[in-house]
Design goal:
The structure holds two protein chains of two kinds.
Chain A: E1 4-7, H1 9-15, H2 23-33, H3 49-60, H4 79-91, H5 104-112, E2 118-121, H6 125-131, E3 140-142, E4 155-156, H7 169-183, H8 185-192, H9 204-207, H10 210-213, H11 216-220, H12 222-232, E5 235-236, H13 249-254, H14 257-266, H15 272-287
Parallel strand pairs in A: 4-5
Antiparallel strand pairs in A: 1-2, 1-3
Chain B: H1 6-37, H2 54-60, H3 63-95, H4 101-107, H5 110-113, H6 116-126, H7 133-140, H8 154-182, H9 186-194, H10 199-210, H11 212-227, H12 231-236, H13 248-257, H14 262-287, H15 292-297
Helix pairs in contact in B: 1-14, 2-14, 3-8, 3-11, 8-11, 11-14, 13-14
Classes of the chains: A mainly alpha, B mainly alpha.
């Protein structure tokens, strides 16, 4: 799964704007799209995982995807992180006032009801298909716009691993055979399409498998899913970057510290610098 | 045996199974919590070492603990005020004889019967700033220029959660109060009318004293139930935004299951339990209605 920005091409055409690729363009678009009956963008600011994920989208696109130094110490409090939060808080002015209490469902509903012109969204195509108008020609999907600090747009992405909780060689061998079976392209496509569009293939062979592309929902939203797969290729996940794995990220993630820092800024009115500094202190306390 | 009569012994035997059951289901978890609070266990199922009163020192020095305790106090007072007022008005109305009163007496309990999670989902969507019916009505009627973020600030979120919880709980209070009102003899009001008492005098000298036993129960149980409310707050706001709706029960959950500090949460639970026990004993001592024999002795 990976985040992209969802929008309606018809709404952009009516406003006379093009899909944004940079932060400046995104901010301008959100401002233009904000009207008496529509919010420019729906952004969460709840102390919850969805907010962590969207905050991290902007951190990745500010060049702040590394929360840890390679030696395991924290490097959250840095200029790139401050830049990401500063931009988020600017953009948040065009989001519904109660998005301090949002989870994924509220964002989806805001977009489906046309109250939000744009939302950061995972690949949950079925929600749009069943709860919104379900028009593939009026669903636009773009990469999360980037700042001038990075050359390519990135996003949060979850590429699930397999955990084997056994040291029994026979069981390990059986598990490996099962995983090889699942990853056979024709099986993998059917496996991913348990909820069509939600899970994207993480293998090249899987991304070309007929069993994936022949599902009716995938056929209907093919161009959007192709864009989502493209966006996911530059995916990052906090605590699992550049080949490193930091298990203490569990304590940081469980407390939603990325989201807490955002709330310090947009709810409590703290300065971005002070909030990020407090965030680093909270992370250090969490993993001590 | 033991200087007790046969009748007393039989009585003890009858209650013995229940006492044993209570010991197993209440005393054991309570003792476990105390033992847990004296250790430094962070995650369920892991080992810890004995740290004495360190967890208690940490929470007494914590601003978050005291601000949550203060918020719990405001929560109880706010809920008590709104619920008691709403329940009293509803009970007075339902005491009257009007067509459909029987249906109304049953109907009013509906919001209390509906599962909490359903109540929360309904209110979250009704108050939504992007399509919620309440904001739609406020904007359509010109009461508000733009949709209001009922959960956008700590203050507005706290007030919203108090009102939603009060809306959910007041029917329960109404039913108890209605039962109290119904047992006040009508003859007292008739006699007062003959003596020329006005409505206020009837309320002050007949209704209020007549409701004293019921108000005692509501005061005690209502406070304890309100204080321990977790589900409504957690499902509506998760204690936010920015901790603005974090009461002690929410803080205890958060400490145990989001911060992974199980022993510290246990210490908070022990302190909270002691505070509630002190409140209950004081309330019973000061506010317990006098029996007829006590009245006669005065």
């Amino acid at each position: 799964m990976a985040h992209s920005i969802w929008y309606r091409p018809s709404v952009f055409a009516e406003a006379g704007i093009e899909p944004p690729t940079t932060w400046e363009e995104l901010l301008a678009a959100a401002e233009v799209l904000t009207t008496d009956t529509q919010y420019g963008i729906g952004l969460p600011a709840n102390r919850q995982l969805y907010t962590d994920q969207v905050v991290y989208d902007f951190m990745v696109n500010a060049g702040a995807e590394e929360i840890y130094n390679p030696d395991g110490t924290l490097r959250f409090n840095n200029e790139a992180t401050i830049k990401a939060y500063a931009f988020y808080s600017q953009l948040f002015r065009f989001s519904p006032p109660d998005s301090t209490n949002w989870t994924w469902g509220e964002a989806e509903a805001c977009f489906a009801s046309r109250a939000c012109a744009m939302i950061p969204q995972f690949t949950v195509i079925t929600t749009y298909d069943t709860q919104a108008e379900g028009d593939p020609n009026d669903l636009g999907v773009i990469a999360i716009p980037r700042s001038d600090a990075v050359e390519e747009s990135g996003t949060i992405a979850y590429s699930n691993g397999v955990m084997l909780l056994t040291s029994d060689p026979a069981k390990i061998e059986a598990a490996q055979r099962f995983i090889r079976f699942i990853l056979e392209p024709e099986n993998y496509g059917r496996f991913l399409n348990m909820e069509p569009g939600l899970f994207l293939p993480v293998t090249d062979a899987g991304s070309k498998a007929d069993s994936f592309w022949q599902d009716p929902m995938v056929v209907k939203y093919r161009s959007q899913i192709e864009t989502m797969i493209e966006n996911s290729k530059n995916g990052r996940l906090f605590g699992f970057t550049n080949g490193n794995t930091f298990p203490s990220i569990a304590s940081i993630s469980a407390q939603n510290i990325l989201a807490q820092v955002l709330q310090m800024i947009v709810v409590q009115g703290m300065s971005v610098e002070d909030a990020v500094e407090a965030g680093q202190a909270a992370m250090e306390a969490a993993i001590e | 045996m033991f200087g007790l009569s046969r009748r007393t012994l039989v009585g003890y035997l009858y209650v013995a199974p229940l006492m044993l059951w209570l010991a197993l289901t209440i005393a054991y978890p309570l003792l476990s919590t105390v033992v847990l609070s004296l250790q430094d266990i962070r995650i369920i199922g892991t080992e810890g070492s004995f740290v004495g009163l360190d967890q208690y020192r940490a929470i007494f020095a914590s601003d978050t603990f005291w601000s949550s305790a203060g918020r719990s106090l405001i929560w109880v007072l706010g809920n008590g005020l709104v619920q008691t007022l709403a329940a009293f008005i509803a009970a007075l109305l339902l005491r009257e004889a009007f067509p459909g009163v029987r249906i109304a007496r049953v109907w009013i309990i509906l919001s209390w019967i509906v599962p909490t999670v359903v109540v929360v989902i309904i209110w979250r969507w009704m108050l939504s700033a992007s399509g919620g019916i309440v904001n739609y009505a406020l904007v359509s009627l010109g009461v508000a220029e733009r949709p209001i973020g009922f959960f956008s600030t700590s203050t507005s979120a706290f007030a919203s959660v108090v009102l939603i919880n009060a809306w959910r709980m007041f029917p329960f209070m109404t039913v108890i109060m209605l039962a109290g009102l119904m047992r006040i003899p009508e003859e007292l009001y008739e006699s007062a009318a003959v003596d020329g008492a006005n409505a206020w005098q009837k309320f002050w000298y007949i209704t209020l004293p007549g409701l004293q036993p019921v108000l005692f129960v509501i005061g005690l149980l209502g406070t304890l139930i309100s204080f321990n409310t977790f589900d409504v707050i957690w499902l509506l706001t998760g204690g936010g935004p920015a901790g603005g709706t974090t009461t002690l029960p929410v803080l205890i959950y958060d400490t145990a299951f989001k911060q992974y500090r199980l022993s510290r949460a246990a210490a908070m639970s022990v302190v909270t339990g002691v505070l509630l026990l002190v409140f209950a004993l004081t309330f019973i001592r000061l506010m317990s209605p006098r029996t007829d024999a006590q009245e006669a002795a005065l």
